[in-house]
Structure formats: C-alpha cells, structure tokens
C-alpha cells in the first residue's frame, strides 16, 4: 500500500500546489476513503481567490473541497462494520463537519437518550427527527474551512487522493446514486435543512393531492433569490417536499439562469432582477429599488398562458447574500411568512425591519445543515417525479489534482468559452 497521498494545497491567493502527504492514520472508528468526485463551492472559491472567506482568514496551507463522495478502501477496526454498517468497497458521501458531540447544541438538555448523529443524538422531534443542532456547535471543525480560529490546525479539505474520516459521518450511497449525485448531497443538505426550518411541509396538507396548474392560487408560493447551485437546489427540494403543491418563483440578475430553472423544472416562473442605470446610494433609494424588485416578483405570471400573478409568497429563500435581495424578500413575503437567510454576503446590512415586524415575517438564519444527509440520500435514490434532474446542475467537469486551478477559474465565471452556463463545477479523481 502507498505510504503517501497527493493533495491540492492552497498557500496563498490563487497559489495552489500539488503536494505529497503521509497516508492518514486511522483511528478505530475511522474509514479511509478514496475521493472520487468533489464539487466546488462558493466558499472554496473565496478562499482560492482571496486566501480568506469574508473575515475568516487562512492561517496555514489549506486543502479545499468539502462536497465529496468516494469509496472506502480501509476501515479502522471491526467496530466500523458492527457500529456503522460500513465495509471496504462501500461508496459513501462525506458529511465533513465534525462537532464536539458533547455541548448543549449537539446534545439538547431534554435529550431522551444521548447517542450519535442524525436521529440518535438529542431527543426526537416531529416525525422522529433529531433536535440536535450540531451544525452550530461552537467547536465545529469543518473540512476546507478556517472558521473557528484559533482552533488549529485547520481541518483539511477533500481535494486530495485519500482522506481518513469518522465512520459515523460517512453515508452509504445506494447503487442508483452515482458519485456525482453523492457529491451534490452536501449542497442539497443545505437546501433540505433550509426547507425544514421554513416549515414548508406543514403548509401542505399530508392528504393533499397534486393541484393542477389552473388551481395555482391554492398552492404554496415560494420565492428563491439567486439561481446558482444552492438556489436551484432549494427550489428542487421545495418541489419535492410539497409533492407538486407549490408554485416556485426564482429571481436572479442573470436571465439565462432563471431560464434554465424554468426549462428544467426547478421553478415555475422566472424573474429577471433589473440592474438599475444608477446605483442606489441613499437608504431611501435602496429601499425604493427593493420595493420595485418585490413588485416585479409579485407581478410575475404563475405559469405561461395564465393571467394570474404570483402575488405575495409564503416563504422566501434568500441565497445571494446581497442586501437589496434581502430587502426585497421582506417586501415580497406575505404576512406570517418566513425568509430563510442562506446567502452569506455583506455582514452588515440595512433592512426595513418595521415592514417585517408589522407583517410578522420571520427572518431565520440557515448555516450548513444538521440531520439532513439520510433524508437527502433517500431523496436522491427515490426517483421522485417532482424532483428535477439534479445532474443537470453539473455544467463543467475536470479530472485530476493538476486541473484544480483551471476548475476554480471556471467556477468564477458566469459562462464558459462555448457560452454554456457555469453552475456547478465538478472535479473527478
């Protein structure tokens, strides 16, 4: 067996090098995974471009990548098989965050029984799901992230040949789920977590049959700001969990992206957000612009050929981090509705809070995910007719560690040289 593995290592802004590392040592509860596919995330791109992500500075050479799938090549001990049902040759998706598993967030005080992740740790809530919120554990170590400094060293990412990872955070892939979809499980988990926190399932009666387009007014109305990969996955999850009983509107400044969303079944109506001739400068100008965007959303047609308009929406997923989009979300959301804050942009924003409070619109933060992977993998394998073809999100592919700088350069673009959209760039090993 080889004693070293190769890894892509970031030493500074746009300074990626392929280096050799010792083969990871396995603990009794670890598995050794040969990485097969990794999707490039926006946070990875920020680290690559700036050697930081917002105010999170990198303090040592860092391997990027956290949206990954692979195959188990070794196990730390027989306890991996007996405790987690994993063996050599199993294909897995990696849940790359490792919480402390001891704090009040990982183990809620009213836990029925302390235990493991995903339905075992923390007391069971509605539908038997865990109430653990390990995703916001203060001691979380997340691969490819420098967050949590001065915790040191950083948790190295998955853009390397082989990683050692705790078996409990590896999720076996069914035969019908390939490595590409296995890598997409990570951003899909973000969307699943956001949808759960939004309460959308409770808005749709369990016995409700699919409603025909002519009955659009009776359907749950959902708005997604941002037609990038995460926004499209949020739209896809909403399509699935409502079993067709939702109208999904998607808004973006890029016309081709919202067109893609509608043509491929991710959304029912597209809204192109206009770029103003003169950039709003004052608070009054910014809020007037946000109101105009909200009116454009509410005035959109539910479906082609129908005169009915979207109107106010029940839930908005804000996936851009752009101040004006969050402002517009408040104006576009109906009384009693919710806004899911997923995008990470400017950390300080001016919001029309009175407009939200007078309508009792809830603003809910979303950070990564908890207890989502089992449901996500179940969804990927389900053949759900309401779920769009997620493989279409992978628009460019690269192969091998040496290609990773080119892959990141592509991920920073809106379109490739042939004019194709850039949504999700995948690196195969």
Helix and strand arrangement:
Blueprint: E1 4-12, E2 15-22, E3 30-39, H1 42-50, E4 52-53, E5 56-57, E6 67-75, H2 78-84, E7 91-94, E8 97-98, E9 141-142, E10 162-166, E11 170-172, H3 179-198, H4 200-203, E12 220-225, H5 229-241, E13 246-252, H6 255-263, E14 269-272, H7 283-298, E15 313-318, H8 323-332, E16 333-341, H9 353-358, E17 362-365, H10 373-382, E18 394-399, H11 404-411, E19 424-428
Parallel strand pairs: 12-13, 12-15, 13-14, 15-16, 16-17, 18-19
Antiparallel strand pairs: 1-2, 3-6, 3-10, 3-19, 4-5, 6-7, 7-11, 8-9
Helix pairs in contact: 3-5, 3-10, 7-8
Question: What keywords describe this structure?
Answer:
429 residues; seven-stranded mixed beta sheet; 24% strand; globular
Model description:
With 429 residues, the chain is an alpha/beta fold. The chain contains eleven helices and 19 strands. Strands 3, 6, 7, 10, 11, 18 and 19 form a seven-stranded mixed sheet that branches. Strands 14-13-12-15-16-17 form a six-stranded parallel sheet, with helices on both faces. A two-stranded antiparallel sheet has the order 1-2. Strand 15 (313-318), helix 8 and strand 16 form a beta-alpha-beta unit. The longest helix has 20 residues, at 179-198. The two termini are 18 Å apart. 45% of the residues are buried. Mean pLDDT is 90; it is low at 112-126 and 207-217.
């Amino acid at each position: 067996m080889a004693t070293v593995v190769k890894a892509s290592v970031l030493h500074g802004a746009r300074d990626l090098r392929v280096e050799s590392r010792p083969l990871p040592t396995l603990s009794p509860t670890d598995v050794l995974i040969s990485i097969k596919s990794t999707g490039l995330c926006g946070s990875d791109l920020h680290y690559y471009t700036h050697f930081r992500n917002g105010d999170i500075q990198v303090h040592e050479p860092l391997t990027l990548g956290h949206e990954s799938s692979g195959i188990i090549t070794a196990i730390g001990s027989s306890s991996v098989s007996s405790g987690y049902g994993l063996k050599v040759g199993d294909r897995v998706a990696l849940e790359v965050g490792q919480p402390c598993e001891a704090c009040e967030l990982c183990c809620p005080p009213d836990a029925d029984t302390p235990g493991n992740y995903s339905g075992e740790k923390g007391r069971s809530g509605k539908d038997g799901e865990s109430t653990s919120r390990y995703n916001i554990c203060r001691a979380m170590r997340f691969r490819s992230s420098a967050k949590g400094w001065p915790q040191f060293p950083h948790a190295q990412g998955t853009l390397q040949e082989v990683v050692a990872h705790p078996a409990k955070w590896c999720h076996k892939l069914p035969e019908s789920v390939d490595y590409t979809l296995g890598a997409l499980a990570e951003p899909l988990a973000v969307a699943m977590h956001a949808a759960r926190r939004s309460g959308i399932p409770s808005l749709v009666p369990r016995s409700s049959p699919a409603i025909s387009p002519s009955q659009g007014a009776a359907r749950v109305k959902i708005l997604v700001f941002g037609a990038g990969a995460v926004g499209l996955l949020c739209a896809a999850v909403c399509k699935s969990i409502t079993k067709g009983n939702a109208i999904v509107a998607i808004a973006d400044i890029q016309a081709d992206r919202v067109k893609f969303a509608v043509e491929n079944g991710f959304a029912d109506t597209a809204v192109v957000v206009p770029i103003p001739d003169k950039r709003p400068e004052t608070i009054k100008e910014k809020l007037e612009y946000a109101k105009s965007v909200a009116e454009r959303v509410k005035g959109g047609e539910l479906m082609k050929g129908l005169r009915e308009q979207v109107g106010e929406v029940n839930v908005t997923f804000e996936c851009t981090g752009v101040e004006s989009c969050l402002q517009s979300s408040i104006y576009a959301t109906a009384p009693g509705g919710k806004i899911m804050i997923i995008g990470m942009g400017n950390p300080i924003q001016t919001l029309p809070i009175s407009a939200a409070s007078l309508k009792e619109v809830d603003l809910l933060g979303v950070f990564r995910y908890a207890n989502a992977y089992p449901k996500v993998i179940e969804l990927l394998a389900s053949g759900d007719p309401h779920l769009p073809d997620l493989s279409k999100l992978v628009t460019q592919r690269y192969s091998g560690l040496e290609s990773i700088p080119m892959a990141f350069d592509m991920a920073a673009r809106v379109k490739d040289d042939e004019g194709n959209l850039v949504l999700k760039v995948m690196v195969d090993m």
